[in-house]
Structure formats: structure tokens, C-alpha cells
Design brief:
The structure is a homodimer of 335-residue chains. Chain A is an alpha+beta fold. The first copy, chain A, folds into two domains: 65 residues, no CATH class; 253 residues, Fumarylacetoacetate hydrolase, domain 2. The first copy, chain A, contains eight helices and 20 strands. In chain A, the strands form five sheets. Chain A has a six-stranded mixed beta sheet. A five-stranded antiparallel beta sheet of chain A has the order 4-3-2-1-13. In chain A, strand 19 and strand 20 form a beta hairpin. In chain A, 57% of the residues are buried. Chains A and B meet through strand 6 and helix 5 of A and strand 6 and helix 5 of B.
């Protein structure tokens, strides 16, 4: 089934069951007022929501048109947003020139950081920045929402905890990253609100594309309507979601509604050519710039500025966006 | 007024209004089901809860005995737990020997890290660790819970956002700290669930001891019933809570229910003598060990082991714990 959180004037929004084709929805309010409440009672709420979903997809229930512009983040305020680093080549590329003190790759276990989870952005909400000179970047990722995970879970417990899957944009202010990392306390100021796809889907909605705890589908990323990247999220994911979840629960349990990010999706290029050459491109501007510096001696791709638009979707084999698209513009925050 | 969250089998617990002397309580359920709900509607809920509080303190309302053992963390699952570094001497001491790559002090602006907020511990819950060989330590801090804070607040907006005050224990696994910091992603595995005092109090409950955005009261910290530290939280706080909150909201807004920690409370010693000498002592074991290494060439104070007990309270001028005491034992986590 596919679910969304619709704007209703309340902090947690209104739970909605969305049709497979993303065209219609039915309120999930009879089952749970919002997605967190559904996750808290998943054993009973999931079957009830699945029943609504089946009726909706069969056209056997009154429904309304689904407008992704009305979608908040699936969990507009979540209790935990943990971003991983599943794809090593992102770190390889970015760390070569970000001034990181520690270029050594951590290939033995995944890096994780605790992100701000109290105000997550909807798919069409603006990327609000105080200053667009901060090197505004996006990072296209796959995100999963888990059920409860005990401390020190087995790999299969970690794998089985995945409830819902979507895309996200881990918005990054590159000019603040080095400072955040160098003080040792990790990302903080450099990571404003992360944005999420308008819809979340259960693993079964992806069919065989969800296997080995990875999503074997391509992203489609555009910047100002030009294709920027289309890496396959199933390729080069060194740490899969079971690895990331198990690592996250290494010294503490996770509660239902924990969001785990894959890290920036990247596929290794033969010689890192531009998007025109191999069609893979990049899932963030920093990587493109890093490759350009190596190749041309100078970064060419500019960071995002006020009004710039970024779109991120995950496409099924037929090219349809499974969970809708993140489609945001940068906007200058004004009091 | 003083509030608490009592165990009721639900993830967010039950809101309670606690008497000034911490002996009695009345359910706050007529006003809001839990503390987060009260914070979401503070303009109306605060006066209603204050009315209950007045009646309770005047003995004019039916009440029940308050048992801090029944208290969960005030927000057992919070949307944001941000720990600051208000007291520079903690960093000075710990960084001299923790192997940190960056011993340079950041005295121009406070360091902050985003902590795991999804499973916070109650005052009497065990400190659960998978292995007590991980150098289990406590950090005694003051914590405030805020209302909503806009991005880039003024200092007075930041100051006015403080709704509630309590103590906390930022439990730390020292053996994992260096690794967390060296990979640049910040504290993660080294910080299991943080613990909080059984009661939270509005600033007015502290009278003139809450001024200049600092709490001018002494902590009382014991380890296995022996006095370990009694620093004054109002002394040597280089960054006050207005500074910490304003810094936290530098690139994103904060929502109601955000918890901000002061960082480990430390007072500078003349020559860092043991607790017997100047009566100040320490708010964490790592600092005591750092000072011992400098003084004796060897750390003497052991880290916490299975069964060890740590207690943290903030005392009023008469020596009474204003928000009760954190009183926890280390326990080995078993599946």
C-alpha cells in the first residue's frame, strides 16, 4: 500500500491511503489519525489500511484526487532521522576535496549521523535558507521508515523492521559542512530540514525491485528541469538497509517511526564522465564539482541559488514515479 | 508549576501536575494527554495547568502521592534533543586527553550536537549498556524544553522560548567517543539514551535563581552514594541558554518540545583538586580522570560498571532537589 500525510493544520497532518497510480486517495483517519499513530499500532493498523488500499485500487470506495502539493513530509515531525552512508563512492568523491581531515574510508562499517527530525519538509515545500551563498546542495537518497528495533538486533530483525520506503533530499549547506565536521560534533548547521517524497510505500509495492535490503530502481534527478542524475539505487550500495539499521541500533533501541537514510546514491563511473556520456550523472552537486575539479581543474556546476529547482523521483521499470516526486525550489528565508 | 510524565503503558505517558514539594500529584489529563500535547498548545494549556498547580499547592484538590519511580522522561520520545557546550572547561579538560584531533577551543560560538531523542530514559530507569567495558560515564547537565523558535531568532526570542527546566544525564560510552568524533559524523554510538529528572519546572519555580538565561543553583552528584561533584550551574557558563537556542536555530526552526542541554556543568578549579579540597568536584568521570592524569600521571577514578549507581539533582538554596533526582544504576542489556 501507499500512504501519505496531508496538510490539515495540525503538526502531524492527516493520514491518507493513496492509490497505486498516485491519482486518488482515501482518508486513513478511521484507522489512525496520522502516520506515527499507525506505526505505533502497525500490527493492527497495517492490515486495516491495506484493506482500504485494496478497495481504493479496485475502485470500490469513494475517493478524492490526490494532490502531492498538499502532502507534508510523511512524518512532518519524526522522533529520529538517521542518515547513513551506504554508497562509499559518495564519500570517496566528496572527501577528496571537502577539506575533510579524515579521507580514510570507513568501509568496515557504515557512518551514521543523527539528523534534525523535528521539522521535515514536504515534497513541494521550499528549501528555506537564510543565505543562498552558503553553497546550497541536495542529496538524493532512499529512505526507509522502521518499526521498533531492539538494541543489538540480528541482521534479519533489522531487515524485517522496514515498514515503508520513499525518497528524500538531504539538503546540505556545503559552506558549513567543513566547520561542522572539523569541530568533531558532526553535521548540524550544515543540514537544514530534510525533504521527503509525497508518498511512502510498503516494500511489496516495489515487487522484486526491493530485494537484498536494497531498492533496485533508478532515481531520476533534475536541476532546473535538466537531467542531472539517474543512478540505480541497487548498485554500489556497500551497506544495505539491514546493515544501516543494525548499526544504528548498536548501543540503543530504535522506536517505531525511525527514518533511516541510505546516504547519497552514487554509482561508480568508469572515468566519471558528465551525465551526457554514461547517463548516470550525480545525486548531488558536490560530487559533480569534485569530478569536474579533477577533470578540468575547476568546478563548473554551480550550487543552488534562490529560485533554483530540484526534482527527485524513483522510477519503476516502466518509468513511473513509485512514490511521487520531490520537486522543490530554493527560497530565501525572511522573517 | 512542576510537571511530570507518568508511566501508563503508552509511549508518551500521562501528564501529571506535581506539587512544589514533589510529594503529591494530580493528573493533567483534563488539559492535555501528555507533555508534548501540552507544549503544542502551551498558550492555553499552561494557564490551565497552572491553575491545577495552584490548587494542588494550596491543598484544595484531591491528589495522590508522587512516586518518582513511576516517572518516565518528561518527553519519553522527543522530536529533538540538542546538546550544547555551555561550559568551556569541560571541553578543555576532556579534549586534552581524549585523543581529539582538534584541541582548539571554540569559544566564539557553542558546539552543538543532535542527540538521539526517540527513547529518552526516566530518572530511575537503568543505564542499559551492552558491555560495561565501554567506559560508561555520566554527564550532569541542565536541560530546558523550549516552545517553537523561528529560524534565526533574536536573543530575546531565544530566551523567551524556555518553557521548562530540569536536569539530565548525557550518558556517554567513552571508549566509542574518539571513533565517533574522528569519523567526523559526530556522536552516535557513544551516546545511548539520555536520562532526565523526574520533574520539569517552569522558570518561575526557580525564583531569582533563574536569571541571565542560566540556572544559578548547585548540582549534587553522587556515585555509589559518595559525593562526586557539586558545581554551580550558574558559574562559568560561557554560553547561556539563549546563546545555545539561538545557535541551534541558525539554519532551521525548532519546534515546541525541543530539548536543549547545557553541556556538562563544570566550574574551573584553582588547581583542580579532588572533591575533598574545594568541594566542587566533577560532573563526569572523564574530567576527573583527565585531572588525575595531569596530577598523578595516572587516572584513578574508574568508569561505571554493572550495578554502579549515579545520582544527579539540582538543589535550591535550602538544599532541596527542585526537580527531584536522577538516580540510576548501570545494567547490562540482555535480549
Amino acid at each position: 500500500m501507499k500512504l501519505a500525510t496531508l496538510r490539515n493544520g495540525r503538526p502531524d497532518g492527516q493520514l491518507a491511503v493513496v492509490s497505486r497510480d498516485l491519482k486518488r486517495f482515501v482518508s486513513g483517519g478511521k484507522v489512525a489519525p496520522n502516520l506515527q499513530a499507525a506505526l505505533d499500532t502497525w500490527e493492527t493498523s497495517a492490515p486495516a489500511l491495506a484493506e482500504i488500499s485494496q478497495a481504493l485500487n479496485a475502485g470500490g470506495i469513494a475517493s478524492r484526487p490526490f494532490d502531492p502539493g498538499e502532502a507534508l513530509a510523511p512524518l512532518p515531525r519524526a522522533y529520529s532521522w538517521i542518515d547513513g552512508s551506504g554508497y562509499l563512492s559518495h564519500l570517496e568523491r566528496v572527501r577528496t576535496l571537502a577539506g575533510s581531515k579524515d579521507a580514510e574510508l570507513q568501509s568496515a562499517r557504515p557512518l551514521l549521523y543523527q539528523g534534525g527530525s523535528d521539522s521535515l519538509s514536504g515534497a513541494n515545500e521550499p528549501i528555506l535558507v537564510s543565505d543562498d551563498g552558503l553553497a546550497v546542495d541536495f542529496e538524493a537518497e532512499i529512505a526507509v521508515i522502521t518499526g521498533p528495533v531492539p538494541m543489538l538486533p540480528t541482521r534479519s530483525e533489522a531487515a524485517a523492521s522496514v515498514r515503508l520506503i520513499t525518497v528524500c533530499n538531504d539538503v546540505s549547506l556545503r559552506r558549513l559542512v567543513a566547520d561542522d565536521l572539523q569541530n568533531g560534533f558532526g553535521f548540524f548547521h550544515s543540514k537544514p530540514s530534510t525533504s521527503f517524497g509525497p508518498v511512502v510505500a510498503t516494500p511489496d509495492e516495489f515487487g522484486s525491485a526491493w530485494r537484498d535490503n536494497k531498492l533496485h530502481l533508478k532515481l531520476r534527478i533534475t536541476v532546473n528541469d535538466a537531467l542531472f542524475g539517474q543512478p540505480d539505487a541497487g548498485i554500489d550500495m556497500h551497506f544495505d538497509f539491514a546493515d544501516l539499521i543494525a548499526a544504528a541500533a548498536g548501543t540503543r533501541r530504535l522506536i517505531a517511526g525511525t527514518i533511516i537514510g541510505s546516504g547519497t546514491v552514487t554509482n561508480r563511473h568508469e572515468e566519471a564522465p558528465p551525465i551526457k556520456r554514461d547517463g548516470i550523472g550525480f545525486s548531488c552537486i558536490a560530487e559533480a564539482r569534485a569530478v569536474e575539479k579533477l577533470k578540468y581543474g575547476k568546478a563548473r556546476t554551480p550550487f543552488l541559488r534562490d529560485g533554483d529547482r530540484v526534482s527527485i523521483a524513483v522510477l519503476d521499470a516502466a518509468g513511473a514515479p513509485v512514490v511521487g516526486a520531490i520537486d522543490q525550489r530554493v527560497a530565501i528565508y525572511r522573517r
